[in-house]
Amino acid sequence: VQLQASGGGSVRAGGSLRLSCAASGGTLSAYRVAWFRQAPGREREFVAAASNNGGSRRYTDSVKGRFTISRDNAKNTVYLQMSSLEPEDTAVYYCGAGRSVFSAWSERESWMYWGQGTLVTVSS
């Protein structure tokens, strides 16, 4: 499956953005989905993940209450709604798809497919 992330941009602290990740070449409902991010000079880190039907979700502590992952399997698309953005959220955001178990969702190696990344810049 191929993934295409979009929706990044520049925003002031406190603002909002919605990222999208469109899948092609496969049925997204067959996969768990995730968002990771990579800030300059840092490792790619887990942000959020959702189960096949979106019923189970997991977030890294720093985005809980601010970010929401959702999916529309009919549209083969995953979303990341980001609110109350902070300069520390500045990074390239990547969407991923895979079949890993819930306990492994935060591990980068658990995800089979990756999109190309979309840049989010938050200024103070």
Q: What does this protein look like?
A:
The relative contact order is 0.32. β4 and β5 form a beta hairpin. The model has no long low-confidence stretch (mean pLDDT 96). The strands form two sheets. Strands 2, 4, 5, 6, 9, 10 and 11 form a seven-stranded mixed sheet that branches. Strands 1-3-8-7 form a four-stranded antiparallel sheet, with no helix packed on it. It is globular, with a radius of gyration of 13 Å. The N and C termini lie far apart (37 Å). 0% of the residues lie in helices and 49% in strands. The protein has no helices and eleven strands. By secondary structure, the chain is mainly beta.
Summed over residues and divided by their number, the pLDDT gives a mean of 96
The biggest sheet amounts to:
7 strands, mixed
- The beta-strand count equals 11
Strand content: over 45%
Radius of gyration: 13 Å
Number of helices: 0
Shape: globular
| Secondary structure category | mainly beta
| Low-confidence region ranges | none
State the helicity in percent bands.
under 10%
Report how far apart the termini are. Answer: 37 Å
* Helix and strand run: EEEEEEEEEEE
